[in-house]
Every structure is written in C-alpha cells, then in structure tokens.
TrEMBL record:
<dbReference type="Pfam" id="PF01979">
    <property type="entry name" value="Amidohydro_1"/>
</dbReference>
<dbReference type="GO" id="GO:0016810">
    <property type="term" value="F:hydrolase activity, acting on carbon-nitrogen (but not peptide) bonds"/>
</dbReference>
<dbReference type="InterPro" id="IPR032466">
    <property type="entry name" value="Metal_Hydrolase"/>
</dbReference>
<protein>
    <submittedName>
        <fullName>Imidazolonepropionase</fullName>
    </submittedName>
</protein>
<dbReference type="InterPro" id="IPR051781">
    <property type="entry name" value="Metallo-dep_Hydrolase"/>
</dbReference>
<dbReference type="InterPro" id="IPR006680">
    <property type="entry name" value="Amidohydro-rel"/>
</dbReference>
<dbReference type="InterPro" id="IPR057744">
    <property type="entry name" value="OTAase-like"/>
</dbReference>
<dbReference type="InterPro" id="IPR011059">
    <property type="entry name" value="Metal-dep_hydrolase_composite"/>
</dbReference>
<feature type="domain" description="Amidohydrolase-related">
    <location>
        <begin position="66"/>
        <end position="422"/>
    </location>
</feature>
Amino acid sequence: MSAAPSTIIEPFAIAHATLVTGDAESTTLDDMTVIIGANGRIEQVSPSLSTPIPSDYHMLDATGKTVMPGLINAHAHLFSGGKPINPKLATPTGQRRVAAFAHSPLGRPYIAAKARSSVMAQLCSGVTTLRTLGDVGYEAVALRDRIDAGELVGPRLLASGPLLAIPEGHGAPLIALVCPDEDAARANTLENISHGANAIKIAATGGVTDAQELGEAGSPQMTVEQMRAICDAAHESGVIVAAHAQSTEGVRRALLAGVDTIEHGAVLNDDLIELFLNNPNALRGWSALIPTLSAALPLLDVDQSVSGITDIQLENSRIVVAGMLEGARQAREAGLRVGVGTDAAMTFVTQYGTWRELDLLVKRGGFTAAEALHAATAVNAEILGVEDVTGSISTGRAADLLVVNGNPLEDLRVLEHPNLVVAAGHPIWRPDAKIKRIADLDEILDQTYAS
Ligand SMILES: [Zn+2]
C-alpha cells in the first residue's frame, strides 16, 4: 500500500515561541524557534534572533504560545472512551458476554474502530507516544504498523496485545491471555511478541474493576516464577514488562521477577525502594513506578450514585487507592523514576485527559507542575526506552511537540486545549476541535478536582 498524501511532511518552523523544555527545574526559554525537517525530526532549536528559516520552509508564528515536548502516556487501553462501566458488566457473566462479543466477527471491527478513534483522541490531546497495556487482541499492534508504514498519522505506539493473567484473573477474559503455569506464561509472551507486541503486561494482582470479593483487588495472583518466565522471554527480545500490582506484596513479587514498570502501585518500604533502584532482573537494571491516579481517585472522590460503581468496587478502592497515592509520594521522595499513565478506558478516564493525571499528581501526589511535565515527557521516554527518539526538544530527535496557549508551568489546564500537536513532524491542525469530549463526565471531574 502506498503512503497517503497526508503522511508526507512539509518542512516548517515554529517561530517566536516560549519553550518549556520539560525538565524538572521549570526551564523556560523565551522567543525560540524550532525547525522541523522533512524527515520529521528537529533540525534546530535556538533563539529566534539567530535562527534564519530556510526559504522553502513554512513558518508558523507562535508569539504568545508555548511549545513543549509532546506528552507520553505510558498506560492506556483503547476499547472504551471512559464512561462509567455498567455495573452489570462487572459480573463474571457480564464480562463473559462482553468478551464473547469483542472476539466475535461483529465485535472485532467494532474494537478496531474504537482503538483507532481512541488513539486519535490521544494524539489530538497532545499525546505523541502512547503505550497500550491490555488490548482485546492485536488491534493496537495493527494501528502501530499502519502508523509506522506512513499510512496513518498517529502517535508512536508501544502496543501490548492482550495482557497475561492467571485463569479468571484480572483482565480475563476480555483483555487477557490466561496462563495456568510457567510454560503457558512463557508461551503467551512469545505469542504476543510474534504478533508484533512491543510491550508486555502482566496482571500480578487482582484489580478494582473486576474483583468480585473484598480484598481481591490487590491480592497476588501470578507467581514469581510465572512472572520470571514472562520477563525472561520478553527481555530476550528487548521488550520491557509492565505489571498491574495493587498491593505491597504484589509489587514485591513483580519486582523480584524482573518487571520493568509497576502499574498503579502500593505503599512501599525501604527494601522495595532499593529494588526499584537496583533490580538485577529488570531489563535495564532498574524498575519504575507508573501510578494511575486518574483511574483510582475518582472511584472514591465521586459519589457512588454518580459513578455507578458497585459496593465491592468501592470497598476495594478504599483499600488500594490510599496505597497507590502513598506509593507515588514515597517514590517521588526517594527519587525513583515515576512516570505518567492514565489507564484510559477505565471508568472516568477519557482518551483525551492525560493533562488530568498531571493535575492530580500536583494536587494529590505532591509533585510540582514542572515535575509532572518532566514525568510525562523525558522520564516517561526513559522508562519506555525511547529517550533517544523523543521526550525532549533537541536536534535529531523526532519532532514530537505540543503547542499550547499560555504556560503549563503556571496552569496545567492550558494543556486541555492544544493549539497544535506535531507527531514525528506531522502537524495536527486544530486538534482541540477534533476531540469528541464527554461533557457530563468532564463536568463531574472539573467539580471534583476544582482545587
Ligand atoms: Zn490498565
């Protein structure tokens, strides 16, 4: 298939912008010009005064606007837009019905279309690199391949395919391959990688969404040996492994197995902090934490009559949410690598709300705005192993940029309405107008997190 005309890049320059570098020190440079080449990379970034723009390059005057690195969302699912999940579907029977539909000849195109619209919403909201962690099938892998082939403009995708869980464990049957033992764990990892997955996800513990009993949400599900088999198989292909872990013991087991990113997290202790910093079984000798406050906090902070979650989900939330928040604070203070992921598709987590995760890290997690921006750009790039390609605005890196009105260091909310998104040199014009927002959901979140 030949490349669609939309994927040809015309070189251009963004001139006279305020540049927020995305470091943790709030570095801001006034009147800067970024030159973007036809190869989709940054050719030059320097003061406008000393930066002549080649005559065959388009020039965008960004006076009064801020340019910053595109956001990286390290944890998303694509199968839903974030509306509260019908409690009836949270039952085992309901989940089996949804899974049967999703995997049927009728359901597969629906899931593929949903995935595409979710990825586009992420892109238009400023996310230029996205990791999926639990897909129905290989719909995210297929999208990534189309984007990489130049058939579609989209974010850089790290796609997991289905996650790996124990039989009837977290994520099964909708978005998981089940692993009764070590051999199955290894085989399913290789299955995902042979389908092109470049991320692997484990359900190390139960989860809030599908737990049927009190305490199930964080209770360990997969053994260290099973997770070790998964990590070994993935690491042999250079693929990092993420684990859903919502209890201290679940985090410990996943780290011991060699998991590279702990998703959600729990209260940490000194041994665990040391294991994050020096993890001999992780691909790069360390592990990172990706708290997902956007998915956790609203379950407690929004009234149950509005959220529609079940009593069991609410009680399990009470157990895991406090732990997640404490773990995020501890990780920040201990200097661990803390990344940004939203868990998009979960109840109240839209595909366009990455800015809300940054906002919650500041309002509830003790982060400064600069630290939150840093986590969502350079730190996330390092965690995902793409730091040579993206995560900062520098010569030779991909032109993954977000242009906003105003300064996000002063008000993160300016990220909600991007002025321009650039994905590997492809400008997305009027991105804000292309986002289909869920107004009532946004209103609930706005009211709940007004301060
Ligand atoms: Zn998730």
